[in-house]
Specification:
By secondary structure, the protein is an alpha+beta fold. The chain has two domains: about 5-180, Beta Polymerase, domain 2, CATH 3.30.460.10; about 185-300, Alpha-Beta Complex (Inorganic Pyrophosphatase), CATH 3.90.80.10. It has nine helices and 15 strands. Strands 2-3-7-5-4 form a five-stranded mixed beta sheet, sandwiched between helices. Strands 8-11-12-14-13 form a five-stranded mixed beta barrel. The protein has a two-stranded antiparallel ribbon with strand order 1-6. Helix 6 packs across helix 7 (about 140-155), helix 6 (about 120-135) packs across helix 8 and helix 7 (about 140-155) runs antiparallel to helix 8 (about 160-180). It is elongated and about 65 Å long. The two termini are about 30 Å apart.
């Protein structure tokens, strides 16, 4: 089954048809848009294996220019993709196109949503990361399914349903972002080098290691994603590191990555000792294996 009446909430068991329809839609969009597309993927709940979902196909399209994309609006409309500009205030820096009889005036069905994002934006990363994380960790996917089921049982209002999922999705996106960087080599900027003194809320922190962030990547606190740099014994302004661990902070809105020079490794104990000067104020869990899974109990 594909499609749902506008404004309603119904969940259906996962169907292989969803993947086939997503691929058909992707092929059609490529034919219309050509090189305007920089990345295109099946996203959303119908792209997560084995969980129930509303039978509406979500496709993410990454482009360098919204203007270039909108230059194809008439061709898209002719193919059944209708621009929904009034949705942009809700979506932020995205465009939304949709398919179904509701949009051509012949009925009340919605079948597809096409989410157009800027290449390399956080929206682009989040759409990819969420699906990959849920498919790699079925425990998280089933937890998401339970949230959806509880909401679907209590409301038929799509707006309330979306709002009800928000806390879980925000948390899962945070974990998915960490997961996406594990083992990668990235360039970081250092804003608190060795010897830096930071004063906040009567706390005075002396930084014995370099501490920085990945530029243009936003973490759970709304700021750029922080990285502890181990294995470098002098102050630096920037460095190329391999992400070797994640520090998950419980009951907090952000996590920290741990980076080291490529080829250098540290044990969990060594990491804990190196970051203790700051992490002693938090309850945390240090993950050193990408295949390890951490979710706070209240989200499971």
């Amino acid at each position: 089954m594909i499609g749902l009446e506008r404004g309603t909430v119904r969940l259906y068991p996962h169907e292989q048809q969803w993947k086939k329809e997503a691929q058909r839609t992707i092929t059609l969009l490529k034919e219309i848009l050509g090189d305007t597309i920089k990345d295109i993927r099946h996203v959303g709940s119908t792209a997560i294996k084995s969980i129930k979902a509303k039978p509406i196909i979500d496709i993410m399209v990454a482009v360098d220019s919204f203007e270039d994309f909108l230059s194809h609006e008439q061709k898209l409309k002719d193919a059944g993709f209708y621009y929904r500009p009034k949705s942009q205030s809700f979506l932020g820096d995205q465009l939304l196109f949709a398919c179904g009889s509701y949009y051509n005036g012949t009925g009340n069905m919605q079948t597809h949503f096409i989410h157009v994002v800027k290449t390399g934006s956080m929206d682009h990363l989040n759409y990819i990361n969420f699906v990959e994380y849920m498919n790699d960790f079925p425990v998280a996917a089933k937890a998401y399914e339970r949230v959806k089921e509880r909401l679907a049982e209590s409301t038929d209002d799509r707006g309330i349903y979306i709002q009800g999922k928000a806390e879980f999705i925000t948390y899962a996106l945070r974990k998915a972002l960490n997961y996406s960087f594990f083992g990668k080599v990235v360039d970081i900027e250092i804003d608190r080098p060795i010897g830096y003194i930071h004063r906040k809320d009567e706390k005075v922190l002396h930084y014995p290691i370099n501490y920085g962030y990945i530029p243009n990547v936003i973490g759970g606190d709304g700021e750029e994603l922080d990285v502890y740099l181990l294995g470098v014994d002098k102050p630096v302004e920037r460095y190329t590191v391999k992400i070797i661990a994640v520090i998950h902070r419980r009951e907090h809105d952000e996590d920290k990555l741990v980076g080291a020079p490529v080829g250098m490794t540290f044990t969990e104990k060594e990491i804990a000792e190196a970051v203790h000067f700051q992490e002693k104020f938090y309850s945390d869990y240090i993950q050193t294996d990408k295949n390890d899974f951490f979710f706070e109990d209240k989200y499971l």
